[in-house]
């Protein structure tokens, strides 16, 4: 066995976006590098025989960003997006399997965002923004480019491509609404279209509407508004006619568990089909019969079938199932899934299992030594059942403790730790376990996998019960002799970064903390972040809620900066629009004011996720060095 290196983490390639051909004989997936070395992320399309009779092969030989593979209804053509001709401007291409020819099908000036092959083999639906006009070009030349908010904002529009002529037309029936998602009825009928009032993430997801677009007459029927953050459209036929389902947040709060909503198209009756379940739906997958539903179920994942009146569990699998794809009849599925010590690969099989791995994209990890990972189950101080994961130092057992312990809090907060391989560029358990640390990965309330109420309980109360949930897990490991109470660290990215900053303002128990892209002031985030109203639901108020005191001040780490004595490592992307850089600057200035030991690192050109290879390597190495300095002085 070999030791885990930073290069092992960032130089791998992951399969993504698997899609089964309707006849089930081929599967296409995107092979994506985990880090970027140049200006563009070069991806590849691969074709795999699910039965293993034929060797896997690349679909194209280009250096390009290739994405969104979709099959024609007859399985003869693979449609996909590629910027092979003009980097950064993706166009629709078609691969004809019979002769292997690849044809560029669009030359849209600003590129194509998404596409949907229709049952009519001569047409493809496109999503694309408007091409620049002559007036736009003139203004650009003259630098007459003042931005008037609300005017000429980019919108994705539904467009129709005629494959016989290459002509692209744009139906005008949706006005100025931003088109988000398309799904055609399985019998070749109308296309369900999900739109927002604008592409603004703060506003759009709260303004969703559903429409039925008739491809023959190019007319539209409005089905009315949908719940916030709707996505994952799926059709199915019931005794009362056609139904259209989607996933969305459970009303009325903007931070809540997701639910499957079932709209009977003729009667307009809308039902929440997953109300009260102790699981959270993550994907809804259309078949010619009843749709399939993927549920986050604690540390594991459940696959179920949505019937006319009930929900039937088909299988539960450890860890996660992502990017579910199926043949039209639903008899064969493909998903991305892995194990505790194996990153995700494409697996195929019947919905009830067993699933068989058909890709092995990271063989370089086969001989790497990993820390033992095991599930945890415990109760919060108020009796609520909680779960999480413990990862032990590589080559060590629990009886050899106590160890220095780093608690890594997940983001979201509507995310979760599943029982899968914990190896990522951001603070991750196996990376620290390889350096001699035990790592706690808690799933406090507010996260995914335990139903709506569990998730909604933190709205307006971030840092309250979820914080004591985390402390309870730490205390459990200290009591069991696994964690050394004098060598505790805490880390996290995004909401996890918030919890790390919050923790050191509440207690001096931690010897070191890492705040990655963390929320420091909820009022400022509601005002400047791209998801402002969703953040306001978490913080409990906004700056325009009156003269104060504001509820969000009581749950903002900046309010407790004078209490911080723990050394803090702050990491943030310079171009982060989700949690803007100003949040990190605010914490840095406060720590400098109170003379707290800290290090502040800004990554140029990076957003909320760090993409560039050298930056990812820096995050990994700097993370270890920081915790070694304070928790393992003298460690090599």
Word description of this protein:
The structure is a single chain. This protein is an alpha+beta fold and 636 residues long. Among the domains are: 91 residues; 262 residues, Alpha/Beta hydrolase fold, catalytic domain (Rossmann fold), CATH 3.40.50. The protein has eleven helices and 36 strands. Strand 25 and strand 26 form a beta hairpin.
Element layout with pairings:
Layout (H helix, E strand, L loop, with lengths): L5 H5 L2 E8 L6 E7 L10 E5 L8 E2 L7 E6 L5 E6 L8 E6 L5 E3 L9 E4 L5 E6 L5 H8 L15 E6 L5 E2 L8 E7 L6 E6 L12 E6 L4 E7 L5 E8 L2 E9 L8 E7 L5 E3 L7 E6 L6 E6 L2 E7 L4 E8 L3 E5 L6 E7 L2 E8 L6 E2 L15 E7 L5 E7 L11 E7 L19 H5 L4 E6 L8 H5 L8 H15 L3 E11 L1 H12 L5 E5 L5 H7 L3 H8 L11 H4 L13 E6 L8 H12 L4 E6 L9 H19 L5
Parallel strand pairs: 31-32, 31-33, 33-34, 34-35, 35-36
Antiparallel strand pairs: 1-2, 2-3, 3-4, 5-6, 6-7, 7-8, 9-10, 10-11, 11-12, 13-14, 14-15, 15-16, 17-18, 18-19, 19-20, 21-22, 22-23, 23-24, 25-26, 26-27, 27-28, 29-30, 30-32
| Ends distance | 20 Å
Helix content: 10-25%
Provide the CATH top-level class of the domain at 370-631.
Alpha Beta
Largest sheet: 8 strands, mixed
- CATH topology name of the domain at 370-631, in short, is Rossmann fold
Please tell me what the overall shape is. globular
Number of E-type strands: 36
Instruction: Kindly provide the radius of gyration, computed on alpha-carbon positions and rounded to a whole number of angstroms.
Output: 25 Å
Helix-strand makeup class = alpha+beta
CATH superfamily of the domain at 370-631: Alpha/Beta hydrolase fold, catalytic domain
Mean pLDDT score, rounded? 96
Poorly predicted spans: none
CATH architecture name of the domain at 370-631: 3-Layer(aba) Sandwich
């Amino acid at each position: 066995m070999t030791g885990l290196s930073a290069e092992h983490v960032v130089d791998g390639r992951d399969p993504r976006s698997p899609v089964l051909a309707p006849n089930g004989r081929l599967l296409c997936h995107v092979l994506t590098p985990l880090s970027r070395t140049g200006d563009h992320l070069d991806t590849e399309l691969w074709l795999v025989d699910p039965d293993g009779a034929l060797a896997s092969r690349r679909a194209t030989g280009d250096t390009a960003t290739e994405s969104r593979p979709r099959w024609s209804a007859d399985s003869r053509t693979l449609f996909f997006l590629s910027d092979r001709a003009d980097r950064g401007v993706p166009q629709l291409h078609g691969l004809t399997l019979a002769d292997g020819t690849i044809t560029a099908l669009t030359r849209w000036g600003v590129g194509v965002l998404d596409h949907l092959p229709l049952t009519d083999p001569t047409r493809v639906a496109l999503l694309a923004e408007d091409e620049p006009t002559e007036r736009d070009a003139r203004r650009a030349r003259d630098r007459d480019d003042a931005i008037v908010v609300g005017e000429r904002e980019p919108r994705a529009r539904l467009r129709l491509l005629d494959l016989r002529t290459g002509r692209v037309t744009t139906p005008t029936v949706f006005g100025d609404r931003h088109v988000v998602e398309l799904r055609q009825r399985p019998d070749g009928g109308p296309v369900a279209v999900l739109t927002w009032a604008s592409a603004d993430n703060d506003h759009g997801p709260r303004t969703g509407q559903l429409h039925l677009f008739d491809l023959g007459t190019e007319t539209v029927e409005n089905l009315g508004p949908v719940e916030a953050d709707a996505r994952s459209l799926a059709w199915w036929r019931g005794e009362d006619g056609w139904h259209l389902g989607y996933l969305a947040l459970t009303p009325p709060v903007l931070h809540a568990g997701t639910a499957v909503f079932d709209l009977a198209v003729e009667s307009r009756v809308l039902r929440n089909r997953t109300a009260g379940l102790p699981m959270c739906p993550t994907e809804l997958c259309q078949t010619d019969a009843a749709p399939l539903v993927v549920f986050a179920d604690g540390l594991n994942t459940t696959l179920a079938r949505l019937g006319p009146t009930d929900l039937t569990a088909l299988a539960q699998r450890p860890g996660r199932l992502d990017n579910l794809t199926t043949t039209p009849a639903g008899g064969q599925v493909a998903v991305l899934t892995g194990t505790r010590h194996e990153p995700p690969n494409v697996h195929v099989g019947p919905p009830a299992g067993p699933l068989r791995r058909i890709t092995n994209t990271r063989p370089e990890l086969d001989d790497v030594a990993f820390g033992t990972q095991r599930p945890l189950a415990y109760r919060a101080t108020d009796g609520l059942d909680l779960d999480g994961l413990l990862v032990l130092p590589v080559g060590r057992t629990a009886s050899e403790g106590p160890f220095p312990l780093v608690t890594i809090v997940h983001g979201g907060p509507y995310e979760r730790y599943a029982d899968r391989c914990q190896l990522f560029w951001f603070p991750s358990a196996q990376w620290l376990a390889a350096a001699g640390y035990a790592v706690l990965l808690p799933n406090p309330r507010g996260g995914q996998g335990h139903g709506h109420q569990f998730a909604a309980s933190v709205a307006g109360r971030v840092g309250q019960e979820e914080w004591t949930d985390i402390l309870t897990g730490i205390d459990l490991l200290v009591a069991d002799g696994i964690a050394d109470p004098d060598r505790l660290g805490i880390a996290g990215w995004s909401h996890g970064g918030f919890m790390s900053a919050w923790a050191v303002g509440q207690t001096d128990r931690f010897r070191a903390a890492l705040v990655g892209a963390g929320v420091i002031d909820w009022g400022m985030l509601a005002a400047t972040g791209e998801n402002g109203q969703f953040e306001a639901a978490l913080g409990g108020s906004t700056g325009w809620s009156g003269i104060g005191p504001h509820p969000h001040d009581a749950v903002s780490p900046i309010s407790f900066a004078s209490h911080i004595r723990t050394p803090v490592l702050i990491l943030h992307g310079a171009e982060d629009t989700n949690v803007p850089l100003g949040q990190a600057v605010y914490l840095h200035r406060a720590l400098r004011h109170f003379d707290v030991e800290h290090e502040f690192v800004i990554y140029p050109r990076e957003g909320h996720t760090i993409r560039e290879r050298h930056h990812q390597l820096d995050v990994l190495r700097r993370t270890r060095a920081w915790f070694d300095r304070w928790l393992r002085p003298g460690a090599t």
